[in-house]
Amino acid sequence: MEDNIIICRCEDLTLADIRNSIKKGFHNPQEIKRLTRCGMGPCQGSTCRELLLKEVAVASGKSIGELEMTTFRPPTKPIKAKSILMEGDQDEE
């Protein structure tokens, strides 16, 4: 893949950004995530997490299954406080 390919759309990170982190000695996906913010955007890595893991696997000679998965927060949907207090449906007005 070419270095200018966008890996993380939320944080506007390219493959070159990830590869540069690996060249600097970072080989743990969680470290690279903290350094670059790859996977910290609104989608929480739904597209870039696997791409990051793949690139680290290639660089380290390990399989993706051997790598530590990065942490993420599930997407959330805002709800009205009234819904919590009344234990009602989130879509009720």
Per-chain topology:
Layout: E1 6-8, E2 13-14, H1 15-23, H2 29-36, H3 48-60, H4 81-86
Antiparallel strand pairs: 1-2
Written overview of the protein:
The protein is mainly α and 93 residues long. It has a single domain (6-86), classed as Arc Repressor Mutant, subunit A (Orthogonal Bundle), CATH 1.10.10. It contains four helices and two strands, in the order E-E-H-H-H-H. The protein has helices spanning 15-23, 29-36, 48-60, 81-86, and strands at 6-8, 13-14. A two-stranded antiparallel ribbon has the order 1-2. A hairpin with a 4-residue loop joins strand 1 and strand 2. The longest helix has 13 residues, at 48-60. It is elongated. The model has no long low-confidence stretch (mean pLDDT 87).
**Domain module tally:** 1
Estimate what percentage of residues fall within beta strands: 5-15%
In CATH terms, what is the fold-level topology?
Answer: Arc Repressor Mutant, subunit A
Largest sheet: 2 strands, antiparallel
CATH architecture descriptor text: Orthogonal Bundle
Terminal-residue CA separation:
49 Å
What's the rounded overall pLDDT mean?
A: 87
Top CATH class:
Mainly Alpha
**Shape, principal axes of CA atoms:** elongated
* Residues in helices, as a percent range: 25-40%
User: Superfamily at the CATH H level?
Assistant: BFD-like [2Fe-2S]-binding domain
The beta-strand count equals 2
Radius of gyration: 17 Å
Uncertain residue segments: none
Content-based structural category: mainly alpha
**How many helical stretches?**
4
Strand order of the largest sheet: 1-2
- One letter per element, helices H and strands E, the order comes to EEHHHH
